[in-house]
Amino acid sequence: LCFTLTWLLGNRKYAEVILNVILNLAGVAFAITAIVFYSIYISHLRLWRDCYFSRSYNKFYYTTAPPSDLESEFFRLVCLEGNYVFKVILIGLNVLLIILSILELCVVITSVLIGIKALRNSGKEENRSTDDPEYNKPLLGEVAIHPTA
């Protein structure tokens, strides 16, 4: 792709910058897609484990006496607590991924803007004359030769 752009534009420097801007625009699309997908995943997050145990269903699998109602309720509450902790961890990880995708979006947009600015200013730099005294002025006015301590 860079070779094709070089052939079309005639200058490799422009081709690399244009390719960089195009790939960064693809990065913008991927970051926005990631934010949308992670948000949808959080909104549709359901846990697959059912914590309501039925004695009639499980009675054939016991090797000892089936648990009492108090034990069954305790196991159900432990199961619900485990599901809640698991769901909180999953939501936290997805929120972290959304934050990182937003950060990626900011970085990629900045990179696109810098690339576009470089392309815009590259034509202006070629037209500048090095003999122009405006561009040969020192950055600082009068600099002291012997600084005092």
What can you see in these coordinates?
- This protein is mostly helical and 149 residues long.
- Helix content is 68%, strand content 0%.
- It has four helices and no strands.
- The two termini are 58 Å apart.
Class per helix and strand makeup? mainly alpha
**Number of beta strands:** 0
Write down the secondary-structure element order: HHHH
For the biggest sheet, the summary is:
none
Radius of gyration from the alpha-carbon trace, in angstroms = 32 Å
Judging from the principal axes of the Cα atoms, what is the shape? rod-shaped
Quick synopsis:
The protein has helices at residues 2-9, 12-43, 55-58, 69-126. With 149 residues, the chain is mainly alpha-helical.
Chain-wise SSE layout:
Blueprint lengths: L1 H8 L2 H32 L11 H4 L10 H58 L23
Helix pairs in contact: 1-2, 2-4
Key phrases:
149 residues; rod-shaped; mainly alpha; 4 helices; 68% helix
